[in-house]
Write a structure and sequence with these properties.
Layout lengths: L1 H6 L12 E4 L5 E5 L5 E6 L3 H4 L1 H29 L26 H30 L3 E5 L5 E6 L2 E7 L9 H18 L2 H5 L7
Antiparallel strand pairs: 1-2, 2-3, 4-5, 5-6
C-alpha cells in the first residue's frame, strides 16, 4: 500500500480501500471488508467440506473476517502516517429527521407545533439511546442467525465472540446457502454497530 500511496496525488482517493480481502489459514473462506473494517462480502470455496469440514467452517469464516479487518486497520494506519484521510462511513443524521425550516409564512401555532414535535422526537431519541447503551453494556450473550438457520453469530453487546453452524443440517452441497446465511448474519451485526440503524433505520422500530 505504501507504494500505491506514493503514486497517488494527496488530493486523490486511493483505489481499493472499499474492498479489502483476506482468507482464513486454509484459504477456504475469503472475507471482504471496507477501509473501516465493516463487513462487505464473503465467499466459501467449493472444497470447504474437505478442507475444513462442517466442524471447522464457522471458525474459518471468523478467521477470514479477522484477517480482513486487520488488513483494514493497517491500511488506516498507513493512511494516517501519510497524512491521508481515512474514508468516512456514510451516516444519516438522526437529529435532523423531522426538522423543518422556519419561514416568514409560518404562523405562531405552526411554530409551536413544530417545536413540540421536535421536543417529542428528542425524548424518543434519548429513549432509543438508552436502549442501545443498555444492549451494548449488558454483558448478556445474544446471537444473530442467517435466514436458513445454518450459520449463527454469538455476540456480547455488539462484539462478536464466536460462531457456529448447524452441523446436522449441512451437506457438502450447501456451499451457497451457507455463504448466504453467513453474509446475512455478518451484515446484520455490522448494521447494528451503526448508530443510524438504531435512530432512523430498522433498529428504531425494534
Amino acid at each position: 500500500m505504501e507504494e500505491s500511496l506514493s503514486r497517488v496525488p494527496a488530493n486523490r482517493p486511493v483505489d481499493g480501500l472499499e474492498r479489502i480481502s483476506a482468507t482464513d489459514r486454509t484459504a477456504t473462506v475469503t472475507c471482504t471488508v471496507d477501509a473501516r473494517g465493516e463487513f462487505v462480502d464473503l465467499g466459501i470455496g467449493a472444497d470447504w467440506w474437505y478442507s475444513v469440514g462442517p466442524s471447522g467452517i464457522a471458525s474459518a469464516i471468523l478467521d477470514a473476517l479477522q484477517f480482513a479487518q486487520d488488513k483494514a486497520m493497517l491500511a488506516r494506519m498507513t493512511l494516517r502516517r501519510r497524512g491521508r484521510q481515512v474514508p468516512a462511513a456514510p451516516r444519516d443524521d438522526p437529529f435532523s429527521a423531522g426538522d423543518s425550516a422556519s419561514g416568514p409564512s409560518r404562523d405562531a401555532w405552526a411554530a409551536w407545533a413544530a417545536a413540540e414535535a421536535k421536543v417529542e422526537r428528542g425524548y424518543a431519541l434519548m429513549t432509543i439511546a438508552d436502549r442501545v447503551a443498555e444492549l451494548r453494556d449488558s454483558g448478556q450473550p445474544r446471537s444473530i442467525s442467517g435466514p436458513s438457520g445454518l450459520f449463527r453469530l454469538h455476540l456480547v453487546g455488539f462484539a462478536i465472540t464466536g460462531s457456529e453452524v448447524d452441523v446436522q443440517s449441512l451437506s457438502e452441497l450447501d456451499t451457497d446457502r451457507l455463504a448466504e446465511d453467513a453474509r446475512a448474519a455478518l451484515r446484520q451485526a455490522s448494521r447494528e454497530q451503526d448508530p443510524a440503524y438504531w435512530f432512523v433505520g430498522e433498529g428504531a422500530r425494534r
